[in-house]
């Protein structure tokens, strides 16, 4: 009885009543889950020479991560996990503009933290694979574990168009799924359908630039690589990286 009363008091003390704080923490957690799994699939694929992961496991893992992220915080913050989605919600007046910069900062921060966690998790494998040198280009580059870079011979214009189209298809698909006037998705299965949408985009548009579809997913980890030892080259457009 005493233990139950103590736990009740502790829960009361730890309970967060401010709605904005609750939403920010939920957004932080959902984005952290999404990016940690996504970067983890890339680290496993790259550092183990594709013997314990490949492009398919990366696509499936990152798509399932979207589903898990939505289930984690969808009922609290909406689990945007993506500044592009937050912006789209503002444009259709489903999300207040004043919250937009706050969510962008939270999503980017979560992605930065995720990159740090994956770096620690695969620390030995990264340094072994890279022969002790953290590079953005070359046969043993490891920067692409964290951020997305263009494939060989992809121009800036083509890369920009690639991201616009990929993100646009994602947003159109998600907005269509959210529209109550369309054929509804069975209640509770919305995250599964969004994950399948992401998987289909990755399978069809992932070759040019890695298909980030999410500015926070790229900016946060890219900032991490900058401070963690890869240097300013992570911000340069690198063609013919192999």
From TrEMBL:
It is found in: Cell membrane. Keywords: Cell membrane, Glycoprotein, Membrane, Repeat, Transmembrane, Transmembrane helix, Transport. It catalyses: urea(in) = urea(out); H2O(in) = H2O(out); glycerol(in) = glycerol(out). GO terms for molecular function: glycerol channel activity; urea transmembrane transporter activity; water channel activity. Pfam families: MIP. The chain crosses the membrane at residues 20-43, 55-79, 100-122, 160-178. One of its GO terms (cellular component) is basolateral plasma membrane. It is a multi-pass membrane protein. InterPro entries: Aquaporin-like (IPR023271), Aquaporin_3 (IPR023275), MIP (IPR000425), MIP/Aquaporin (IPR050363), MIP_CS (IPR022357). Homotetramer; each monomer provides an independent glycerol/water pore. Could also exist in other oligomeric states. Belongs to the MIP/aquaporin (TC 1.A.8) family. Aquaglyceroporins form homotetrameric transmembrane channels, with each monomer independently mediating glycerol and water transport across the plasma membrane along their osmotic gradient. Could also be permeable to urea. Also participates in cell permeability to H2O2 and H2O2-mediated signaling. In skin, transports glycerol to the epidermis and stratum corneum, where it maintains hydration, elasticity, and supports lipid biosynthesis for barrier repair. In kidney, contributes to the reabsorption of water, helping the body maintain proper fluid balance. This is Aquaporin-3. It comes from Cinclus mexicanus (American dipper).
């Amino acid at each position: 009885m005493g233990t139950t009363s103590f736990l009740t008091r502790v829960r009361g003390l730890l309970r967060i009543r401010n709605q904005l704080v609750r939403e920010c923490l939920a957004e932080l957690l959902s984005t952290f889950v999404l990016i940690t799994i996504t970067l983890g699939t890339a680290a496993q694929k790259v550092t183990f020479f594709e013997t314990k992961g490949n492009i398919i496991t990366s696509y499936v893992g990152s798509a399932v991560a979207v589903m898990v992220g939505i289930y984690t915080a969808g009922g609290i913050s909406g689990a945007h996990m993506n500044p592009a989605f937050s912006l789209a919600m503002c444009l259709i007046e489903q999300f207040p503009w004043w919250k937009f910069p706050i969510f962008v900062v939270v999503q980017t921060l979560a992605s930065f933290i995720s990159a740090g966690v994956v770096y620690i998790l695969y620390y030995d494998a990264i340094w072994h694979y890279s022969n002790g040198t953290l590079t953005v280009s070359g046969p043993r580059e490891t920067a692409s574990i964290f951020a997305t870079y263009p494939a060989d011979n992809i121009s800036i214009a083509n890369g920009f168009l690639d991201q616009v189209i990929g993100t646009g298809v994602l947003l159109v698909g998600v907005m269509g799924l959210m529209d109550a006037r369309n054929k509804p998705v069975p209640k509770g299965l919305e995250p599964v359908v969004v994950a399948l949408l992401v998987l289909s985009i990755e399978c069809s548009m992932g070759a040019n630039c890695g298909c980030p579809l999410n500015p926070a997913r790229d900016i946060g980890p890219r900032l991490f690589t900058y401070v963690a030892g890869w240097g300013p080259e992570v911000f340069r457009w690198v063609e013919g990286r192999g």
